[in-house]
Design goal:
Chain lengths: 371, 371
């Protein structure tokens, strides 16, 4: 066996799972663009499965976050996708088979069971390649908890759940950054080359995507003693990512750039300082993307006003929509805010909508059972 | 005497000096645009001087900070302007007289002694108005430690030193935010309506200017246990703010906007996390302003390369230039980096330059003596 079998596009750092770093202050996850071979176990030996079956969960994510457009996302707890992964002698060694896709709503029907065209499948294959799996076949069952095209990181949740399941069934050799790379490959094929959903889906909390080449992620720790609740209001309306992306301006004025950059800085400061008022203000303050996209979601402007009037600290579009996201510090307050937002979607957009109140997920993708 | 004598453009909050806030988490300084009368002592009674003479210092500041263009600045210790302020019976009550301007270089000769046309004078008058001073005349002596038009916040340092001197000679009634407002009035007249020098000159450390209407400032605390040194290299070259501002693009592509916004977020995160490597990277990563301005400063590109090659974590233009600023964590390292930058200014720009290594100033404008 050769010393180093890695695909050149992946570098497996010798640091351990989940969120380790090469830097002394542990605030960065860093991956150089050049190929590195650290002679880690994963890069030399094909690992053996340590479980026969695992079940994993990956949370929904809210990306874009107003002025954090395209580089900042966070994970929300209690809603997401599940993957059950089994060592399966019926599957050709080195391959993966998707046996089952279940879930409410439109998700299960619309998704392909061909692993090459399924976000969970693509991420799983990518992790298997990184781990150099050639002797074991796997079967995967996907349970969608998230609707497609809702702006809640549905594809990222499937990819993250699959990536962590494959990694963990073989002993958790890969660090989080590699799993994000695997998920990014999936996202690139399914919904665009962006890491602001997949990174928090895997790592939990808030993650800032500093660069793609090399991929550098900065976890932003929201203080543990503070509560942060997201009010997620999902209307019955399809807002495809591509259409929402086409609505973006190609050129931006200097004054809007400075404004949004300062709000991005304020947003990051508010996360790290646990400042909910500042967070809400910055979240609501986007002058570039939200003004273009909100008119494409019937009632969105009214929903935002209703959220703020009901006491939300801030409100914007989640991801590329159509879900609206508002923030507060208390679940009961969140429910009341959600009611007002649902009413506004009906009153101003003639759309039925469902509200959920979810806390910040600080863990990210994880195993929920193994045997 | 009427209940409330404030000028409508100023709101004197009831919070105490120096960096208090209306918000619970104390991370914001907030000033509503509407007129508020809090019935504070300052707003009702003209305070009496508590000293006959004070001497104040305000530090140099580095604004723009790469992707922090126009909204983020920080103070550097050990270099700045001094103001000596005296209760002077020879001066008409309620007025201020500038008796003396001293200092090395071009500063002293170029500045007007008319307080209405001098940055220290304008800020002093503004604070006197806020305090409702009508019975006492003051004389002011300005000692310039900073050269004009160097990109080190020269006008802000004078304004900050004057503002704090007036406030302190009358017992320090006004909070920092009001002093920033006074300084901003001075900056608007002298170098443009921007608070990214005057806010850190008064408050110390890093300050993010979140908005102007209302003025909202977010102090960003760099961890006290970490060292941050600035290598400031000032070439013999005049780069007027107006010319440098004219070089800015009016329209920005979406991709550059997203890049710079993410770097702005990373910069803020690095400050709060005390991550010098991340700070340096973000500082160096501006794709919008620096590429337009650097070519106007002979040798600047080479100076940046020399700084990074010599081990600086990052390097950019300070303010509107021509000073180059590099960052490191050690004074001795800083001196070596500075030597290389001075050499590069000569080799690549044919400019003589002087290097200084200064630490982050965490205090801001302060009294150095009083009697």
């Amino acid at each position: 066996m050769a010393i180093c079998h890695h695909q050149p596009q992946f570098a497996v750092s010798s640091s351990s799972f989940p969120f380790t770093t090469n830097l002394s202050n542990k605030s960065h996850l860093h991956l150089p663009s050049s190929f590195r071979c650290n002679l880690s176990i994963a890069s030399i030996l094909e690992p053996e499965p340590v479980y026969t079956s695992v079940k994993s969960f990956a949370p929904a994510t809210v990306a874009n976050l107003g002025p954090g457009f395209d580089f900042l996302g966070c994970a929300v707890d209690g809603i997401g996708d599940y993957v059950t992964l089994k060592v399966d002698p019926q599957v050709h060694p080195g391959d993966i088979s998707i046996t089952d896709i279940t879930g409410t709503g439109n998700s299960a029907k619309k998704l392909s069971k061909d692993p090459m065209w399924n976000c969970a499948g693509i991420a799983a294959i990518s992790v298997m390649k990184m781990l150099n799996i050639r002797s074991v076949g796997l079967s995967l069952s996907l349970e969608k908890g998230l609707p497609l095209g809702s702006g809640l990181g549905s594809s990222a949740a499937s990819a993250a759940a699959a990536a962590i399941a494959v990694n963990e069934i073989f002993g958790g050799k890969l660090p989080a950054l590699d799993l994000v790379m695997a998920g990014l490959e999936s996202e690139a094929k399914v919904s665009g080359y962006h890491a602001d959903n997949i990174a928090p889906a895997i790592m939990g909390g808030f993650v800032l995507v500093r660069s793609y080449d090399p991929l550098e992620l900065i976890p932003l720790k929201f203080p543990v003693e503070k509560n942060l609740c997201f009010v997620l209001v999902n209307p019955e309306f399809e807002a495809p990512t591509k259409k929402m992306r086409a609505a973006l301006p190609t050129e931006i004025t200097m004054s809007h750039h400075i404004w949004n950059s300062s709000q991005a800085g304020a947003l990051v400061a508010a996360v790290l300082q646990g400042d909910l008022i500042g967070f809400g203000k910055a979240l609501s303050a986007d002058k570039i993307v939200e003004p273009r996209r909100a008119p494409l979601i019937p009632g969105m402007d009214g929903v935002k006003k209703a959220a703020l009037a009901a006491g939300a600290y801030g409100c914007t579009i989640s991801g590329a929509g159509p879900t609206a996201v508002a923030v507060t510090d208390d679940e009961e307050k969140g429910r009341k805010i959600g009611e007002k937002m649902v009413e506004a979607f009906m009153a101003e957009g003639n759309l039925k909508a469902v509200a959920m109140v979810k806390k910040l997920d600080r863990v990210g993708a994880r195993l929920v059972s193994q045997r």
